Amino acid sequence: MPERNEFDIVILGAGSGGYACALRAAQLGLSVALVERDKLGGTCLHVGCVPTKALLHAAEVADAARESERFGVRATLDGIDMPGVNAYKDGVVSKLFKGLTGLVKGRGITVVEGTGRLTGPLTVEVDGTSYVGKNVVLASGSYARSLPGLEIDGTRVLTSEQALRLESVPSSVIVLGGGVIGCEFASVWRSFGAEVTIVEALPHLLPAEDEQSSKALERAFRKRKIGFATGTRFESVKATDAGVTLTVEGGQTYEADLLLVAVGRGPVTDGLGYAEQGIALDRGFVTTDERCRTSVEGVYAVGDIVPGLQLAHRGFQQGIFVAEEIAGLEPEPIDETGIPRVTYCDPEVASVGLTEAQAREQHGEGVESLTYDLGGNGKSQILATQGFVKLVRVTDGPVVGVHLVGARVGELVGEAQLIYNWDAYPEDVAPLVHAHPTQNEALGEALLALAGKPLHAHT
Ligand SMILES: Cc1cc2nc3c(=O)[nH]c(=O)nc-3n(C[C@H](O)[C@H](O)[C@H](O)COP(=O)(O)OP(=O)(O)OC[C@H]3O[C@@H](n4cnc5c(N)ncnc54)[C@H](O)[C@@H]3O)c2cc1C
Questions:
Q1: What CATH number does the domain located at 157-263 have?
Q2: pLDDT in tens, 257-296
Q3: pTM surpassing 0.70?
Q4: Closest to 279 (Cα-Cα) out of 118, 140, 116
């Protein structure tokens, strides 16, 4: 007879969604089993957000050294020591992993190591032991997808996870997919000295962003000599000992040392017993209502397996939401449009709320937009970055979209998301003071201009 363990919540997967749910549930006095087959922290901590942002920081340091003369500083960039970069990156990850492990232990959460499978609506089985929950939370995350006819060999044709483990800088790379992950890797490799070409099927890089942001990024990438072909569909790839040849529809070919496949992430839901237990799926994703409830009573789903933005902070928030829901706190549902989005390439692209096109679709002609160029922002000039802050508002109504392009603008999205999520009117927030000289001032200037009293802006 398999052993039986009973908990208030059994969580399958300890990535951003799963562990956040566990931490909050434990804080609320619920007993929690957290099942994980790999490492606490999941994709984000080990092969996603954290290591890629460490690489991007190393890339920024390389650029600073290369361009130091511009600032009157004599330095030279002698090269990129990938083992050194990896040691720095892995050091950041292990420190955070240690911290998270301690946190989970400290909250009294039962961590079950092994591969879990849903064997009853409220039962997860791991190595012959059943863990029964009053509630179950599915949080099994995502994997790097490929395309039909595109075989990942881990040597020449890589996923992002494999690309994070490179021990030298390739001299040339093709990046298939100009979304967030593709643009971030392209930016890193270019800063490290590689020739980079992005191939994207849709008409623009970062196609989910406001078109003005995508176009600004394309201009900046052109300046950085990052090549890209948009509106270009993959046809085939041939890997040899010397490199890869990518053929696109129409017959054009591209050659490079490596190909990174960054065409999106699929849900990890196959073979885990979800369908067998009656959990409704849509193309492999677990569908939920706005309270993260699946089609089966007592079973919730959070994170990348739920259709929508595949972002760590969405997973965190959904995890917290579910813990509070189960504890009877009746939390407010999450507004998906209010989740901030950041691409950490150089320049950064960040946004929250609706694009201008979406705002016009939803609100008709009663929409205004204002773009404040970072050329007028002192701190951005000091940093020698270009870009803009764009606000989209409903006429005589709240700000419904904020779009940012420029070095470090990802940090501005904190204020932007408060403006969006609190339905702020430009007239309400324009009088609030921004420190000088900061890039935040650009947001303040844009709000002043939209409120009809521009300061450092031509009208
Ligand atoms: C290269 C890259 C860069 C990214 N950068 C960012 C970023 O800058 N900002 C951002 O917000 N997001 C970023 N993301 C996305 C972010 O990592 C994900 O949105 C987030 O990790 C999703 O969390 P999750 O809990 O849904 O899934 P995951 O983090 O994938 O966790 C799922 C966990 O479940 C475990 N698991 C799966 N099946 C089983 C099973 N049967 N039994 C036991 N355990 C199981 C897995 O081992 C895994 O640990 C990035 C992703 C990638 C790939």
A1: 3.50.50.60
A2: 999 999 999 999 999 999 999 999 999 999 999 999 999 9
A3: yes
A4: 118
